[in-house]
Amino acid sequence: MSDRLPQSPAPRNIPVLDLRQPAPVRPLTQPLLPAQGGLSDRLHRPLRDLRISVTDRCNFRCSYCMPKEVFDKDYPYLPQTSLLSFEEITTLARQFLAHGVRKIRLTGGEPLLRKHLERLIEQLAALRTVDGVPPDLTLTTNGSLLTRKAASLKAAGLQRVTVSLDGLDDAVFRRMNDVDFPVRDVLAGIEAAQAAGLGADGGLKVNMVVKRGTNEDQILPMARHFRGSGVPLRFIEYMDVGATNGWRMDEVLPSAQVIERLREAFPLVPLEAAAPGETAQRWGYANADGVWDPALGEVGVISSVTQAFCRDCNRARLSTEGQLYLCLFASQGHDLRSLLRGGASEAELASAIAHIWQGRGDRYSELRAQRPPDTALPAGSGQRRVEMSYIGG
Ligand SMILES: Nc1nc2c(ncn2[C@@H]2O[C@H](COP(=O)(O)OP(=O)(O)OP(=O)(O)O)[C@@H](O)[C@H]2O)c(=O)[nH]1
Ligand SMILES: C[S@@+](CC[C@H](N)C(=O)[O-])C[C@H]1O[C@@H](n2cnc3c(N)ncnc32)[C@H](O)[C@@H]1O
Ligand code: SF4
Ligand code: SF4
Question: Which residues participate in S-adenosyl-L-methionine binding (predicted)?
Fold first, then answer.
């Protein structure tokens, strides 16, 4: 089990959940049946999505993720020897694919800081799902290094990319990343990714975390900028993940309000989920007849706080040092690295993964949404949860 939990100083504010309006739970988008030919957890959820964190380091200090006061020069980042090697990651990924995983997302920290990441991408792109096709291979990045790396990532076999961008106004963006990084460089990274072919068929997405009172004025400018560009934009509710960001409910702008603001500016129509277990609720930009115009594209909201989507959650998370986490809000992982380094065979690894997934009952956001307002966290409340930069988001 991991002991990699946030170090001192103590969190600035202990998150006190104040859900004045208990959230509805989003309806299922996949049937509650045992996974076809794959694993199923205790809540009958299949294993489909593997998110791999390749580094716990980042060149940004977004306050909702790696606040400067905590992630300073003395922060005990993982030593090189703790990190899974590319070969170790590939060995584990092969077992996850054999269990039915179809999508692999590389994340971090900032994944593009991991040296020679292209080599890992090449290895992962050569793997096959149970259907005999390459996995849907994607990556989430802050975009700061994309101008330099987009072409080599594409050449290595990356299929698509998601760029996080919290505003278009340079001053707001610099405040959000808290390292004075200019917005024009991320926009250039997005263009480079499109030019490299990572944006085909909506493969390039942009995610914006919305913090009430901080960057909410960027919602409409961002929507205007990406409408009709072929890049789906998704607004993410600010989450109480980790224990260092001083999360407060009053800084969450519920997705319903985001959609309301968008609808005042543009006609929108709800779209079907593109895939079972999808995180985002999708809306299409409509034409004058109120019909979705695919040329105008779509926008989405990820409402983990106000509309939990645990019932569909098919995501496993592999931390930088090889801990398997079953939920973004978990306090503890399952140590696959020790198994690997202890000489476990691939069959033993596969069996361990199956055992862990079949015992999974995590549904943190859903449980929290069902609690009355102003009560303590239902799960992991006695323990500190892992940080987003460690588990990878
Ligand atoms: N609470 C919660 N948030 C999640 C989960 N999965 C992803 N997110 C958050 O949703 C945001 C978007 O995630 P992405 O990395 O773009 O992944 P995705 O939505 O699966 O991506 P696509 O494959 O492009 O649809 C990030 O901030 C994630 O932290 C989840 O299982 N639970
Ligand atoms: C942890 S980052 C890692 C990848 C990369 N550094 C990036 O920012 O895209 C993954 C995603 O998590 C999101 N994120 C981090 N902390 C969050 C929080 N407290 N609430 C909601 N989303 C968060 C980020 O905005 C980003 O889209
Ligand atoms: S959200 Fe991404 S870019 Fe921002 S601090 Fe976290 S890991 Fe870095
Ligand atoms: S809170 Fe946990 S179980 Fe629920 S959707 Fe997120 S990762 Fe999945």
Answer: 64, 109, 164, 239
Q: Taking the CB of residue 364, how many other CB atoms lie within 10 A of it?
A: 23
DSSP-based three-state secondary structure for 5: coil
This prediction has a pTM of 0.90
Q: Which residues contact 79 (CB under 8 A, 6 or more apart)?
A: none
Task: Choose the residue to mutate in 51, 63, 65 for probing ligand 3, maximizing ligand atoms within 8 Å of C-beta.
Answer: 65
Identify the sign of the CA torsion 217, 303, 335, 102: negative
H/E element, 89: helix 86-98
Any known ligand binding at 51? yes
ipTM of the prediction greater than 0.95, yes or no: yes
DSSP string, 35-73: PTTS-B-TTS-B--EEEEE--S--S---TTTS-TTTSST
Please choose, from the candidates 170, 242, 255, the residue with its C-alpha nearest in 3D space to the C-alpha of residue 207. 255
Task: For 4-51, write each residue's pLDDT tens digit.
Answer: 433 333 322 322 233 333 334 444 444 334 445 589 999 999 999 999
In ligand 3, the atom with minimum distance to the C-alpha of 58 is: 8
Residue whose tokens read 């990343």: 177
Q: Which ligand is nearest to the CA of 392?
A: 2
Distance in angstroms (rounded) separating the CA atoms of residues 58 and 203: 24
